[in-house]
Amino acid sequence: MDDNMTNGQCLCGAVKFCISGEFESFFLCHCSRCRKDSGSAHSANLFSTVAKVDWVSGEDNMKTFQLSGSRHIRSFCKDCGSALPVFQVDLGLLVVPAGSLDSRINIRPNAHICFSSRADWDTDLASIEKIDGLPG
User: How does pLDDT run across 7-37, given as a tens digit for each residue?
Assistant: First the structure.
């Protein structure tokens, strides 16, 4: 596989894609919108102005949602709800949820962004117990 090719899919496997090109940045966003999108402490998105996405299968199984009055946009699988890549036309920017990727990537997160907006429980998480698997 070409080093500049990255594969991914949704949880149920209905939507599969391949990305060609480099990611320019990787941010962990703690804004309230991204927390609602991810259902977690933050979103983890890769960004590129040069990469292109090719839909291998299931493109018709995708839905895109843009929050009214904002640039906040997300795509997801209609069946399983998994976050999928979305191209923000007005910015010329491909946004790829890191968790949707199956391939290894050669970029680490650049920064936590909107950090002052993080959830009140999102503090000192590195100090809590780590369990390799499900709790027993």
Answer: 999 999 999 999 999 999 999 999 999 999 9
How far are the Cα atoms of 20, 36, 60 from residue 16, in angstroms, in the given order?
14, 24, 11
Q: How confident is the model at residue 1 (pLDDT cuts 50, 70, 90)?
A: very low
Query: Long-range contacts made by residues 111-115, C-beta under 8 angstroms, separation at least 24?
Result: 111/27, 111/28, 112/27, 112/28, 112/29, 112/30, 112/42, 113/27, 113/28, 113/29, 113/30, 113/31, 114/29, 114/30, 114/31, 114/34, 115/30
Q: Pick the closest to residue 92 from 58, 50, 129 (CA basis).
A: 50
Location of structure tokens 């493109």: 59
Structural domains of the chain, ranges and CATH numbers in brackets: 5-119 (2.170.150.70)
For the chain, percent of residues with pLDDT exceeding 90? 90
Q: Are 19 and 85 in contact (CB under 8 A)?
A: yes
Global pTM value: 0.92
Quote the CA–CA distance of 16 and 30 in Å, as a whole number. 27
Q: Please tell me the predicted confidence (pLDDT) of residue 4.
A: 77
